[in-house]
Amino acid sequence: MYSDDSKKATLILEDNTTFEGFSFSFNNSVSGEVVFNTGMVGYPETFSDPSYYGQILVMTYPLVGNYGIPNINNEDELFNNLESKKPQISGLIVSEFSEKKQHWNSCKNLSEWLTENKIPALFDIDTRKLTKLLRESGTMLGQISFDNKKVKLFDPNEEDLISKVTIENEKRIGKGKKKVLLVDCGCKNSIAKSLANRGVEVIRVPWKSDFEKYDFDGVVFSNGPGNPEVYNELVEKAKIVLDLEKPTLGICLGHQIISRAVGAQTEKLKYGHRSQNQPVKEINTNKCFVTSQNHGFHVLTESLPGDWQPWFENLNDNTNEGIKHKSLPFMTVQFHPEASPGPVDTAFIFDEFLSKIK
Questions:
Q1: Domain of 59: which CATH number?
Q2: What span, in angstroms and rounded, lies between the C-alpha atoms of 59 and 79?
Q3: In terms of domains, do 148 and 265 share one?
Q4: Model pTM?
Q5: What is the pLDDT of residues 94-118, one digit of tens each?
Q6: Is there a single domain that holds both residue 181 and residue 113?
Q7: What are the catalytic residues?
């Protein structure tokens, strides 16, 4: 924890509710959507998840930073230890911050990493009270303000965020006879690793790529940030891919994009699912799994066309967690089978997808 001379700052929600705290990172006023995550581990992976782009993240676990940031001294270490090249959150809110780090693979503390990337972060905030407010009132826009300097509220759900987090150039990962086209909508590195570790060549491409110029056996639409209703161009590209009738998997935002491509509707959740312990049930088997999730929108099951069926549902609120085509090799999941962080109970999703590739 920093000393009492740490710079004071304020979190101001759109309803003008304020929370006073102290800075332990870059001192700059920012705005975004204020959301909370209830995970207890894996904050480096969480903060580097591109799905959080444009959001001010509140961590409900009281102590953050105690094991620092893993080695990221070169491209390989970055790829293996983080979900993207840098922290993607707009700002961070915690109850307590540990300045000291203790871990064999740590290269710097959390404050240093966030400061290098100009991400403001506050501690000494009553995160229990703040989370309770967000659960009752729903996710709100807000800002971190220094020296009473206010900035214009930024609503990430109205913007094309994918173009800000997708990779710039094609990357090939892994080796194998089977080739999987990974459409990067803000993809976590762990999705690419999960596929490559199963003996396939992964062709990771920016979402605006001309998919038809690639030779591939299956397609994965990745996770990513923002409102699926904004991405009409990506939905149209998904329609073209589905017309090929090759095995296709959608994860998180990819699930929503494919759902919209086949005519289903999406809707914003009150405060989203951002945790590592979301229980989901496989509808046809009644098997239950604990999943890692990070999303603010969901697919309306009742809007699915007749040739599609729900695959998983959330046991907390009964929202849709995945769909399958009744005859073609298409499947999607709202949760993260690669986890990182979180349980790997649903890693079999990758195996089931790859088994569809002949």
A1: 3.50.30.20
A2: 24
A3: no
A4: 0.96
A5: 999 999 999 999 999 999 999 999 9
A6: no
A7: 252
